[in-house]
Amino acid sequence: MIYLDSALVSEAKTVENWGWVKGITTNPTLLAKSDLPPETALKQLAAISPGELYYQLMATDFQGMVTEGRKAFDIIGDKTVLKVPATAVGFQVVAHLSPEIPCSVTAIYSAAQAAVATEAGAKYAIAYVNRATRLLGDGLALVQEMATILKDSSTEILAASLKSPAEAAGALIAGADHLTLPLEMLDAMTTHNLSEQTIDEFAQKGRGLV
Ligand code: E4P
Questions:
Q1: pLDDT tens figures, 152-193
Q2: Is 71 noted as a catalytic residue in this protein?
Q3: Rounded to a whole number, what is the distance in angstroms from the first to the last CA of the chain?
Q4: Which atom of ligand 1 is least distant from the CA of 182?
Q5: One Pfam annotation, family name (predicted)?
């Protein structure tokens, strides 16, 4: 699946019209860019999103995270996927909440964390591809290692922090199951200058029903 990485209602409406984007991922930074209070933004996004809507937990203690996760589920409903940070307490929260609310583990930077994510019951393991390339050297190698570790598990890899169409395609080739990208990047994935050129050629030389 390909998701929109945004908390802006206008962008959610745009991809709803496109018809091929399957859901929306948000994070605290993206929610801060909205003019709406988080609760209102999430309600509106949930109404528009064609599928899953990811909400990232901000609390940092176990009880606070569990309470926040349940609150997000009350607001978003059945489309909820919680994004739980890859920390010791985060994995504990995933193990606790997964039976009642689908959870993803976010900000994964090592294959070992992916191994724990699946043991804890996460539906998705989120790899921060471009950040991993910048900070560790090779984000696509991280995706490859995660894919090897998760190949017989029910945990799927969502590649995030992607900065170009080539990197997005590379993540899928490396074994990611899903992608999330900002609106401009999704748009960029649809075009190629040679496609335009080829289509122009047909338009000039060919004929059809119109
Ligand atoms: C994913 O779910 C995150 O919201 C996002 O892709 C993080 O990307 P960034 O590196 O651009 O912050």
A1: 999 999 999 999 999 999 999 999 999 999 999 999 999 999
A2: no
A3: 34
A4: 6
A5: TAL_FSA
According to the model, what pLDDT value does residue 181 have? 98
> How far apart are the CA of 161 and the centre of ligand 1, in A?
4
Kindly indicate the confidence band of residue 201, based on its pLDDT and cuts at 50, 70 and 90: very high
Residue 108 near residue 128, CB atoms below 8 Å = yes
Is 161 touching ligand 1 by the criterion CB < 6 Å?
Answer: yes
Catalytic annotation, pick one of 22, 83, 123, 205: 83
* Residue-number span of the structural domain to which 51 is assigned: 2-205
Domain membership flag for residue 181? yes
ipTM above 0.90, yes or no: yes
Structure confidence by residue, pLDDT tens digits, 20-37:
999 999 999 999 999 999
Residue 40 covered by a domain = yes
Number of domains composing the chain: 1
Ligand 1 test: best mutation among 5, 136, 178, 181, most atoms within 8 Å of CB? Answer: 5
Q: Does 102 reside within a domain? A: yes
CATH of the domain at 158: 3.20.20.70
